[in-house]
């Protein structure tokens, strides 16, 4: 006899293909923005301390200042995003949303007025902060090994959180994204992939 209640199915675990889909989406958005809209979409980034600018918090990772900007974010997003998928499993999208939200609010609060902040680097810095925090506070060899590899390949990212008026980067987005990742990494200490 069949049960009256359907069996609950678990959400499918994200894979590397999910990351490729997200990158493809970002490239399509940038192509439309550059070739059809002349960069018009960039106005929907984060405008600090402007209520209108809050809409940029969920949009910031999808908007870039050209193909060079997007290219520089693509490989670190795929690399660090893959580590996040392996460590977070089904929590990946939730964890990414938390980093985007907290990093975006932080950028909105501390960045200078009149600026517009766009790009996926805040999320990437969040992944970096998460991975390095878990590597430092976990007692498992796999996390330590992962942290060493990430530090070797991406340790120079730390220079991106230093305030700079000479470089056209959102150091505020980098800093607040990384702090969001550190906070999340501490909260997920000891958690296994879902």
Automatic annotation (TrEMBL):
Domain Peptidase S54 rhomboid span(s) in chain numbering: 60-185
Origin species: Rubritalea spongiae
InterPro entries given in the database record: Peptidase_S54_rhomboid_dom, Rhomboid-like_sf
Keywords recorded for this protein, A-Z: Hydrolase, Membrane, Protease, Transmembrane, Transmembrane helix
Localization, UniProt: Membrane
Domain of life: Bacteria
GO BP annotations listed: proteolysis
EC number(s) from the headed UniProt entry: 3.4.21.-
Protein name listed in UniProt: Rhomboid family intramembrane serine protease
Membrane topology summary: Multi-pass membrane protein
Transmembrane segments: 16-41, 61-85, 92-111, 117-137, 142-162, 168-185
The keyword Hydrolase is annotated on this UniProt entry: yes
SUPFAM superfamilies named among the record's database cross-references: Rhomboid-like
Any GO molecular function: peptidase activity
Pfam families: Rhomboid
Top-level EC class as recorded in UniProt: hydrolase
Keyword Hydrolase carried by entry: yes
Gene3D superfamilies documented for this protein: Rhomboid-like
